Amino acid sequence: MSTNPPRDDGPPALRKSLGVVDGVAVAASSTAATTSIGVGMGSLAATVGSSTPVIILIAFLPMLGIAGAYARLNRVEPNCGSGYVWVGKSIGPWSGFLTGWVALAGSIIFLAYTSAITGSVLLQFANKAGWHEFVGLALDPNSTKLSTVLGLVVLVVVTVLAVTGVHQATRLQTFLLVFEYGVLLIFCCRAVAVGEQPFSFSWFNPFEIDSATHFAQGLVLAVFFFWGWDAAFSVTEETRNPEDSARGGLIALFVMLGMFLLGAIAFQRVMTVPETIENGPQGLTFLGAHLAADPWASLPLLALIFSAVASLQSGVIPTARGMLAMGRDRTLGKVWTRIHPTFGSPAIGTVLIMAIAAGTAVLAIGIPKLNDMILAAVNSIGLIVAFYYGLTAIACAVRFGPTLRADPREGVRAVVIPALSGLALLGVGAYLSYDYLTMSDGFELSPDNGWFMFSVPTAVILAGLGFAAYAKYVRKSPYFETGRGTDGDAIELPMDRYDDAADFDAFKARGHA
């Protein structure tokens, strides 16, 4: 076994220890089906009424095309920067930087509002246990302030777990997923079987949606439901076989489709549309209470707690790795490239992500009602996600453009379908942005205010352009000369030559690292 000293000509590579099951765990946890169903169905029903099943199906179509684009790009260029690297190389560095930037900004907003959701769910659980007050403080699940503070405590805990290494984190997530999906399947299947509201095939008729604006808003919300499956590609450099990242993302995407459709039908079999909207983030609690008596009625709420915790942890992991990719190219600072010598993870970057998300969550306290905060965050993130998914799909079409003439069948899969999927999301995002600008006369912090909803993604993009200019003209990042990201596998360290942590620790013990 070689005992060559570690090279120091670049940032360290991540430790390869993950398989396809780990990829599924990261992707499924990041997508957070239970959280989306339990918290988001009220927002979706408020937008498209009883047409939630069909809008979920329609949103899945471009998602599938984009997943295929990710798989093809990852096959030829595995990199934890994913869209940031692929768009930069195929379209241009400014577009590539914005793709990476808006993905990171969306993830930070997601962590901020998911922290509040986690706190709210914990408070719901406390209320179910008969605990409604603590030292004179009302434990109100609808309080944005209290929910955020409690959720930030959970965020700190999961960040510590994420720092210790992604493999350990995925083991926890796999356990959480098995429990929450088991509970969700049992209760949703029971709701479909015994629900008092009549089933209707009109739920699958897109023409039942009353306006183009509501259709576009519903599509963006449904895209947000699916968002997260691409987290499997953010750990591709820690995966033993890059193909496992694609398999993990695609498996998670199809599982999410089944879960979301089942959840949408289950909710509408038990609740009317007004009841779904009224219950909002407490919809799963209502479902459990309607179908079973305590303590069994509390199981869906416990599953929601597990889902929220898992999605927080899985949100921290890919965000830190995206910034690691940008730090390697000097488009962001070197602090994001520091790999922990023991855990083989970007520890400092992971902690910084937690701190930024916590600050964002504190700012969001300015929206007093939790329901309003959730809807505002989901709408904002939905536009951001549509932007970077769309650009990545277009990058795939550009990269594989020559195959359209050489092999028309493969060209349809690698060029036409990704291009149509990307253009669909970018078109919906552009339409919705225009609609936001025309729906309100003034600005206020409200999910019903178009200027507010437009200002969040606009501010993210403008900030990204500012950071991009700084990286190009001050840091002199080579990324803006070539659009090519650093190849994570081009830098070999001792940890790269060992299959697991035990072998690498033995290597260190002999004094070679």
Describe the structure.
With 513 residues, the protein is mainly alpha-helical. It has 20 helices and 2 strands. It has a single domain (22-484), classed as Up-down Bundle (Amino acid/polyamine transporter I), CATH 1.20.1740.10. A two-stranded antiparallel sheet has the order 1-2. Strand 1 (133-134) and strand 2 form a beta hairpin. It is globular, with a radius of gyration of 22 Å.
Q: How helix-rich are the residues, as a percent range?
A: over 70%
CATH topology: Amino acid/polyamine transporter I
Structural category = mainly alpha
Q: Helix tally? A: 20
From the alpha carbons, calculate the radius of gyration and give it in angstroms.
22 Å
CATH top-level class:
Mainly Alpha
**SSE order:** HHHHHEEHHHHHHHHHHHHHHH
Q: Could you outline the blueprint of secondary structure elements for this entry?
A:
Layout: H1 20-31, H2 33-48, H3 52-76, H4 83-90, H5 93-128, E1 133-134, E2 137-138, H6 144-163, H7 166-194, H8 212-226, H9 231-234, H10 242-270, H11 273-279, H12 283-291, H13 299-328, H14 347-363, H15 370-399, H16 403-406, H17 408-439, H18 450-473, H19 479-482, H20 501-509
Antiparallel strand pairs: 1-2
Helix pairs in contact: 1-7, 1-10, 1-13, 2-8, 2-10, 2-11, 2-13, 3-8, 3-10, 3-15, 3-17, 4-5, 4-15, 5-6, 5-13, 5-14, 5-15, 5-18, 6-13, 6-14, 7-10, 7-13, 8-15, 8-17, 12-13, 13-14, 15-17, 15-18, 17-18
Membrane topology: Multi-pass membrane protein
Protein name: Putative amino acid permease
Keywords: Cell membrane, Membrane, Transmembrane, Transmembrane helix
